[in-house]
Structures are given as structure tokens and as C-alpha cells.
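Dear support,

We are seeing what looks like truncated structure output for some complexes. This example has two components. We would appreciate it if you could run it in full and send us the complete C-alpha cell output so we can diff it against ours.
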Amino acid sequence: MMAENREARYKAVADVVLSGIPDDTYRQGLERIKILVDGWYDGAGGIDPDDLFHIGLADLKKALADVPPSKRLQKLDTLVIEHKVETLSARAFRLACRVVDKEMSANAAHADAQAIAREIDGLLPQVHQLKDIALKERSLRELADADLECRYIQEGQHDGLTSIRLNQYMHR
Amino acid sequence: MSNKQELGNHQERSAHSSPKDATSMSGDSIEVVESLPAWNAVLQSNPTLKWQAGVLGNPHLTTVQRQALASRLGRVNGNRYLQRVLAQMNASGLGTESSAVQRDDSDNTSSTATDSATSATTDSAANADQENADNQGSDGETPDVMPPEAEGGSGTGDYLEKAKALKVIQDSFGSYKTMVEGTVTILAQAEFQSAYDNKYGTTIYSWEKYIKPKFGNLGGFADKDKNINYINSNIASSTTVPHEMLHNNADLSWSPFVGSNIDEGTTEYLTFVALKAAKYTGMTSKYPNQYGVITDLVAVMGDEPLKQAYFKGANEDLRKAFNRKCKGAWVDFKTKMDEANWTQAKALAVANP
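Here is the complete output from our reference environment:
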């Protein structure tokens, strides 16, 4: 049931967002839309699905305003990268917070931190290719923060440096 | 003492000095004025052709700095004005004297002051347009905040002086509590890198081996043992100082109660409220998604519960206000913000029918 609904959501978004896009890029555009729409719905629990749809679509239309069809795939790529960066950054921060709070030891979190660090390395080449300078700088800043937090865990909380947000969390 | 503060004193002393004096005065403290925002402050400190020609012809400037300053001057005052400044440079011999030849060690190229500045003249308007198009509303080299008098903007690396920032936030939020500066440590690029390398310079994580190739630069980092947050002035914008100063004025219970993303979004929201009240325009957010969620939330329940919680620790009242006025529960909203799932957070903050 959920899968059918999800497919309907993909199509509804594609009808709006991919209108006028060249045929040879439609399929690629649809793949990007699936990633973004999944981000709206995955783990949503009891949140009103129609609210999610309206809000997600409104934000997407705002992001794509003034972007001609020929450049929409490129913009969708950018949004997917932004989504991945923010999700990864949030994961790193939450993991480090759990170590700070002693919910888990740095040793126990080490493997997760290493995995996140690898994902950061995997994502960096795409971020460096971003043409939107502000987004590129913001994304690099996010990933650098996440990287510092992974290092904080991997180094076993030695007397190193860390992100400002984690420092604020430690000294709250 | 921050570079900015030192520069402020420096400017005060040199307000009526000749460009030559400005050069020699900066010579004994070149570290103070080595960063672009500092040079820009010197350039703008005396809006006369002769002064600005003297600053642009200063041999301590690198080619890149000179081009950036000339480009800024062209954007703010127009190309015709910049041409007049360059003509003044030539008339003063600053464009052709050997002392004005700047060797840029970074790329082993050399050029005269007028060469590099002229290229900025011809390109400045086109560059500005291109940057606007490329950045799509970004804060790259485009003006980030225009001051009330609208005489010029500030782009990458520019930030409000502490005294101005304090006044701006005091004027808007002084009724909640008396604002204090707190510790805002903004370093020029070279000092910022040194502070980083003091810890990691001899390791695999050194600036050259690790940060530069992976991330290019850092916006900030913290020495957790000393509890010092270092901010890179080259990444700072005009919203940075009031933003960081507001963090310093938040109730101690605020950040733990709301988490990092609600904290950043709310701090950014309050920064914009204060800057707008002081007639600043053209701000772009460093936290656009967090800020977007908070502005949606404010549209539903107003900003008073946020301000009461932020400045006075009325967190429970904020939670109750959210639960009463929004469709979702505060605890879920906080979780979704922590996960950086903006769509779900916004859906939880939709008005309760």
C-alpha cells in the first residue's frame, strides 16, 4: 500500500517538476525525485502525508523557480547532494553527542564514526563540483564539522579540536 | 585583542593621514591588515580618490587582494569612479614605480598595481552579474548585508564590528536582558590556520595535508579543552558577529533544550530580526534550511515563545505553545530537526486546525 502511494507521489512530483525536461534526461530526473521524495516520507511515522507532500513540493518548486528545463536535472542533482550532506552531518553530530553523553563509549562508536568518515570522503568529490558557490561552501563546512566530530570519536576524545556545535554541546 | 579592534584604532589614528602614511603605518603591523576585509576597511575609511588610489597602490597588497578590492570599489561606486582612482594611481606614480610591482608568491606571477586593478575595472560589472547568476542568491562575492546608509556592501569576509553588533542586538532584544559581547574569536586566515596547526601541524591532520585538500578551508573549529570557538574571518559575513553574540546571550538552558539545528535556526532568525530593525538589508543566511523551518514556525505561533525561551529560559512555555498551536508534538519536532529532516519538521509545525 505504502509502495503504491509512494509511486503515486513520485509521479505527482515529476508531473510538476519534470515538465518540459528533455526526454533523454527524464528518467534521470525521476531517480533524483525518488531520492528527495523518499526523504520526505521515510521515518515520517504519523505525520500527515498530505502535509509532507504539499510542503515538500512547495519547497521543491521554490528551489526550481527560474531554473529552465534544460538545467533542472543539474539542479535536482544539487538538491540531492545537499540532502546527503545534511543527513550525513546530522548523523555525525548525533553520534558524537551520544559519546559526549556517555550513552556509548568512543570505542563502541568507532566503527560508525569510521563509516561516516568514509561516506564523507565519498561525497566530497561531488561537493567540490557544485557550481552554486554558497551551497558548496556551506556543504564543505557541514562536512568538515562532521569530519571533526568523527575524529573526536576515533581519537578517543584526546585533547584535539572539534566542531563549534559539538563544543557548544559539551559545554552546555 | 582582535584584528578588527586593532584596525579600528589604526584607522582612527590615520583618518587624516595621506595614503603614504597609511602604507607606512601598516608596515609595522602588516599582520593586522593582511586580510581582505581589513584592507577593505582601510579602503573605505576615507572615501577620497587620493586615499583610495594610495590604498590600491600599496605594495603590501597581493595581486589577488588588489583585484578584489578594485572589483569591490567598481561594484560599489561604478566603473567610472574606479577609472578615476586608477588615473590617480598613475598620476601619483603608484602604478609604474617598482615599489608598486607586486610579486604574488602563490603563482609566481607579477603584475603592476594598475595591471591587476584595471583587469578588475573591466570585469567588475560583468563579474558581479555572473556571480549573481552562478551563486543563485548566494553570498559568494555578492553583497551580503547592506548597511543602513547603503553606501556599500560587505561580502565574503566582511563582518560587523563588535560594538555595532552589540548595539544592533541590544536595540532589538535589550528588553529581555542586557546583551553582552561574550567571547567571539574571529581570526584572519593565517592566524586561523596557525591556531589549527598548533594542535595538528605535525600530524596527518595538518592544514596542508588534510584540511586544504579535503575541504579547502574551515569556517570554524573549537578547542574544546579551552572552550574557545575560532571563526575564520574569510568565511565570516556581516551576520556572523551578531549571530555569534546572540549565542552568547542565550539562556544556559536553551541550547540543551532545543538542540543544535533549532538553536542555529532561531539564532539566525533573531539575527535577521535585529539587522532588519536596524535597517540593514540584503542578508543571506548561513543556515537557510534551519532558518526556513523557524520562520514557518513563527508564522504559526509568533516569535514571543521563542524569544522568552531563548533569552529567559522559558522552555516549558515554548513546548506548550508548540503543542497547542502546531499539529505535531514538540518532542517529534526536535527529533526531526536533529535529523535535519526539514520537510518533516515543517509538517509537524503546521498550524493546528
